[in-house]
Design brief:
Elements (H helix, E strand, L loop, with lengths): L1 E7 L2 E6 L9 E11 L1 H8 L9 E2 L3 E8 L11 E4 L2 E2 L5 H4 L10 E2 L12 E4 L3 E3 L5 H20 L6 E5 L3 H12 L3 E5 L3 H10 L3 E2 L8 H8 L5 E6 L4 H7 L3 E9 L11 H6 L3 E4 L5 H12 L5 H4 E6 L3 H10 L6 E5 L2
Parallel strand pairs: 11-12, 11-14, 12-13, 14-15, 15-16, 17-18
Antiparallel strand pairs: 1-2, 1-4, 3-5, 3-9, 3-18, 5-6, 6-10, 7-8
């Protein structure tokens, strides 16, 4: 089978590999679409802290079932979305209903080979029927679920003032599902053109910095000088994450959706005085995937407008490095197979 392999940082090779052999409990699938994630760019650039090369990337997947056990609930030809978080089912996190942070988690395309290949074997529990969804929509479920999970972690309520910092695909998902939850959503990004575009796509409002002496002043003014009830940082940037503490109102919540390898520092007196809540948000659970699928089926997520770039498996070895260097106009890039 054809597979796109990241052999080392900065090197992608289209290789001919032996197809996987399905175990009795697994389902053999053919990836049809693969979304390219920030994680994939980081793997290519050598910036991912938990990765061993070589690696077949790809965890945002739409797949077609080829072979399935008789009692699996799936049949050849079924179109599915994929939950790429393979959990152990027995650790403390799994026992407590949080397989998204399983102590032995294995993520497709990160800890083990993923979907940038012609064939893949998966447990039935990690497939979501794509009934009523297009191939592109199935491949978009995972990255949107990360945003939906963060919003659920934050318990966003109707009319709460919400700020989303960072308008990459994850920030887009956060803004969309914060809006669905009833929040009054503002977004901020240092790229004003991108911020304006994403605000339109997510029915949110961009932070106007044109008349302010600083970004912090503009953000504070957008909350009537009080700060935001809920602040999501989706930048994965240390400085932005540390600054996000300043945007939270008294009694508010700050959610880190992005992750960095460095330390994050904040002023404890201000944190304590405001009685802030700080939350981390990692991956997503089945509940979040189901929420996203329902939202797409109900027409509440403009998936077609989020996919801005396309390629195929062979051309991806050229296109992915190009997009890693220049993300102008890029929201979501999608690889097509077949």
């Amino acid at each position: 089978m054809d597979a796109l392999v990241c052999t080392e940082p900065g090197t992608l090779e289209l290789r001919q590999l032996s197809p996987p052999v399905r175990a009795d409990h697994q389902i053999l699938v053919r990836p049809r679409r693969i979304g390219i994630c920030g994680t994939d760019y980081h793997i290519f650039e050598g910036k991912h802290p938990f990765l061993r090369y070589p690696r077949i990337m790809g965890h945002e997947l739409a797949v077609e079932v080829l072979e399935a056990p008789a009692n699996s609930g799936f049949a050849p030809g079924d179109l599915c979305a994929v939950n790429p978080y393979l959990s152990c089912g027995s650790c403390v996190s799994c026992r407590n209903g949080k397989p998204n942070c399983c102590t032995r988690i294995s993520v497709l395309g990160v800890h083990e080979d993923g979907g940038m290949a012609e064939f893949l074997c998966l447990p039935a529990a990690n497939l979501l029927p794509g009934d009523g969804l297009s191939v592109d929509e199935c491949a978009s479920v995972e990255f949107l679920a990360i945003g939906a999970h963060a919003v659920r972690r934050a318990a966003v309520k109707g009319n709460e003032r919400v700020l989303v910092v960072g308008t990459g695909p994850i920030g887009v998902g956060v803004a969309l599902f914060a809006k669905i939850a009833g929040g009054d959503v503002r977004i901020f990004d240092v790229d004003e053109k991108r911020m304006t575009s994403i605000a339109s796509l997510t029915a949110s409002r961009a932070i106007d910095v044109s008349d302010a002496t600083s970004v912090s002043e503009a953000i504070l003014a957008a909350s009537d000088g009080e700060g935001f009830d809920v602040v999501f940082d989706a930048t994965g940037n240390r400085r932005a994450m540390e600054t996000s503490f300043d945007h939270v109102t008294h009694g508010g919540r700050l959610i880190f959706v992005g992750v960095v390898t460095s330390e994050i520092c904040f002023q404890d007196p201000a944190f304590h005085a405001r009685e802030m809540t700080l939350l981390g948000s990692r991956n997503a659970t089945a509940e979040d995937f189901d929420h996203v699928v329902r939202a797409i089926r109900n027409g509440r997520v403009p998936v077609a407008k989020l996919i801005t770039h396309r390629t195929d498996l062979a051309a991806c070895s050229t296109d992915l490095p190009l997009w890693a260097r220049n993300k102008t106009g890029l929201i979501k890039a999608m690889i097509s197979i077949g």
